Amino acid sequence: MADPKGFLNHGREVAKSRPVEERVKDWNEVYVPGSLLPIISKQASRCMDCGIPFCHNGCPLGNLIPEWNDYAYREDWAAASERLHATNNFPEFTGRLCPAPCESACVLGINQPAVTIKNVEVSIIDKAWETGDVAPQIPERLSGKTVAVVGSGPAGLAAAQQLTRAGHTVAVYERADRIGGLLRYGIPEFKMEKRHINRRIEQMRAEGTRFRTGIEIGRDLKATDLKKRYDAIVLAVGATTARDLPVPGRELKGIYQAMEYLPLANKVQEGDFVAPPISAEGKHVVVIGGGDTGADCVGTAHRQGAASVTQLEIMPRPGEERHPTNQPWPTFPMLYKVTSAHEEGGERVYSVSTTHFEGDEDGNVQWLHLTEVEFIDGKLTPKPGSERKIPAQLVTLAMGFTGTDRENGLVEQFGLELDERGNIARDGDYQTNVPGVFVAGDAGRGQSLIVWAIAEGRSAARGVDRALTGASDLPAPIRPTDRALMV
């Protein structure tokens, strides 16, 4: 184990953020470059190597956290990287974007601040790239089998990399103009610079994975034609049907889904636009939805120079500490979270519901009308007399997603069955009702976390490998029916 007294001798320290007044003027990651390495050995030493490491249960990938904590403590970066990659294809993604359910399940977290697992993880992988410990893993022999992966988010990329390394010839189809899915166009640059994606894509290309961008299966290429070309298909198309807000005034100009707004800001960073076609500059911005996507809209609006930013959430404000009976350790608690975007300003309003929008004579949204709500007999009910309006010249809807895309024809052309929640149904090997067609990630699970997407991609790859060869040595960290440990 690491230092036996580490958790007694050292308190929790996390990555340092750049000053707000500095970081809102650019799109670089919010953390001070290089600030982790001087402290990370001590932080890794806080891991107790407990008899039953519940962090393994919190992480769907089954990351070998005590092992790479020990290596990080000893500054054996090569060994730490090897242990990290044993269970996770893309730790630089999860180390930046995952909400760290492993830390919620950390045994130390019962009565102390948990180990900074996420910071240790990102320190290991960044050091590994710096020292050249991340290299292509080219298969020794090819199987002669071909696989198409539809979608290049974390689930699709993980499945593709695993199958390529197993010796299959893999092509990844992406309807956008660049590879990465939501990692590319849904996650703002200040949360993860896209150079991290580009670096992994080059590794995957060197391993033999092929990429096809600008092709939407169902529209540009019929699903039946794709099935004729490949021995197996993995659908990792996500759950991209956004939840809408059907209230009066929704048709006004200036009201957008989050995934209409965020990609344009990222395209500016890619050099596609000088300025985003949808901008918050000088406007009163309202973000509807209190989750991570909503926070991404908040941070983006700050950097675009919004006059004000207000984030609305229909549910009550969560508590700041874990409730011992309602959210006991080691479950993943729903706590009040202050992201880097919230540190930068704006107002957060809880327990409110939008009643309608009001526009000007040109059809542009100007006001959002809302009412406070409360739980009565288990239902959210408007409070009489609490109605008011707030200025809203740009509104983004970040209220989650309801299932996979049905408009492009992919589901119908393949003849796929859906479950009761609108996700693509699959069996224990991630195979759909159509032989040879598999599904991984949000398309089969529903909207979830990046760590679950990678775990699904790895698990689905095993199912594909077994179907093509009769057996598989690839790992399957989760079953399709597994869910996060929550009350």
TrEMBL record:
Domain 4Fe-4S ferredoxin-type: from-to ranges: 38-69
Pfam families: Fer4_20 (PF14691), Pyr_redox_2 (PF07992)
EC number(s) from the headed UniProt entry: 1.4.1.13
InterPro entries, per database record: 4Fe4S_Fe-S-bd, DPD_II, FAD/NAD-bd_sf, FAD/NAD-binding_dom, Glut_synth_ssu1, Glutamate_Synthase, Helical_ferredxn
GO-annotated molecular function: 4 iron, 4 sulfur cluster binding; glutamate synthase (NADPH) activity; metal ion binding; oxidoreductase activity, acting on the CH-NH2 group of donors, NAD or NADP as acceptor
Keywords: 4Fe-4S, Amino-acid biosynthesis, Glutamate biosynthesis, Iron, Iron-sulfur, Metal-binding, NADP, Oxidoreductase
BP term (GO), one: glutamate biosynthetic process
Co-factor requirement: [4Fe-4S] cluster
Pathway this chain belongs to: Amino-acid biosynthesis; L-glutamate biosynthesis via GLT pathway; L-glutamate from 2-oxoglutarate and L-glutamine (NADP(+) route): step 1/1
Catalytic activity entry: 2 L-glutamate + NADP(+) = L-glutamine + 2-oxoglutarate + NADPH + H(+)
UniProt xrefs under PANTHER family: GLUTAMATE SYNTHASE [NADPH] SMALL CHAIN
Name listed for the protein in its UniProt record: Glutamate synthase [NADPH] small chain
Lineage, broadest ranks: Bacteria, Bacillati, Actinomycetota, Actinomycetes, Kitasatosporales
